[in-house]
Amino acid sequence: MKIAISSDHGGNNLRKEIVHLLNDMGMDYKDYGPHTDDSVDYPDYATPVADAVIKGEADRGILICGTGIGMSIAANKVKGIRCALVHDVFSAKATRGHNDSNVLAMGERVVGPGLAREIARTWLTEEFEGGRHDKRIQKITNLEK
Ligand code: RB5
């Protein structure tokens, strides 16, 4: 599985922590930065990750900002993206199983690095359950038309 990951300045530290996790898990990834501590606009960093997922250049994306909120709002504007803002392990499992989320957003100012790693690990390893959830995903897709 290939992962696309980015943050804004508010998520730089946690992005680096999650990149360590991806290395620990032996995952293939592309880190879209930012590679400085300068203040940046989160939509500019959400877009390349969302686009990579939609184009099939990445299987899933991870976005981090101060709260995760701006990143998730921006990513969900891209057709085909189902970005879940998650700050607990239960929701990480549920959003993969039920929503087939293809992008995970987290906030560096909300969760500590240890919990964020567990959330990301859970989200990366849980499978979509399909079944009754298929038609619900289809109804979300229909909203994009
Ligand atoms: C940046 O200060 C902050 O607004 C951003 O990281 C994010 O939390 C926005 O939703």
Automatic annotation (TrEMBL):
Q: InterPro entries of this UniProt entry?
A: RpiB, RpiB_LacA_LacB, RpiB_LacA_LacB_sf, SPI_LacAB/RpiB
One matching Pfam family is LacAB_rpiB
- Give the record's keywords alphabetically: Isomerase
Q: What top-level branch of life does the organism fall under?
A: Bacteria
GO terms of molecular function: ribose-5-phosphate isomerase activity
* E.C. number(s) listed in UniProt: 5.3.1.6
Q: Record keywords: Aminoacyl-tRNA synthetase included?
A: no
| UniProt cross-references to Gene3D superfamilies, sorted A to Z | Sugar-phosphate isomerase, RpiB/LacA/LacB (3.40.1400.10)
Q: Its family?
A: Belongs to the LacAB/RpiB family.
Task: Please report the name of this protein according to its UniProt entry.
Answer: Ribose 5-phosphate isomerase B
Record the organism. Answer: Metaplanococcus flavidus
State which gene encodes it: rpiB
